[in-house]
Amino acid sequence: MDVHERMITICAWVGMVLMCLAPFVIDSDIGKLLAIAGLAMLTFQAIHHRLLNLILLNCIGMIGYLYAFLI
C-alpha cells in the first residue's frame, strides 16, 4: 500500500468515526460540524474509487448540514 492509499484509508476511518459520533450530538453545532467533517473525509475515499453516487450524496449532505449550522 503506497502513501496515497494509506492516507485515503486513514481519512476513511477518521470520517467513519466522526459520522458515528455525530448523531448523538447532531442538535448541537459540534454535531453538525462533526457530520460535515466526517462526510468530507469519506468523500476522499469515494473520489478515489470513483463512486459518483456517494460523492454526490456526501456533497448534498455537507451542504445540508452547513445550512443547518449557519441558520
Q: What are the segments in which pLDDT stays under 50 over at least 5 consecutive residues?
A: none
- Our count of helices gives 3
Shape: globular
Q: Indicate the radius of gyration in whole angstroms.
A: 12 Å
Summed over residues and divided by their number, the pLDDT gives a mean of 97
Set down the secondary structure blueprint.
Elements: H1 3-21, H2 29-48, H3 52-70
Helix pairs in contact: 1-2, 2-3
Describe it.
- With 71 residues, this protein is mainly alpha-helical.
- The chain has one domain (3-70).
- It has three helices and no strands.
- It has helices spanning 3-21, 29-48, 52-70.
- The N and C termini lie far apart (42 Å).
Features:
globular; 3 helices; mainly alpha; 71 residues
Produce a short descriptive summary.
With 71 residues, the chain is mainly α. It has helices at residues 3-21, 29-48, 52-70.
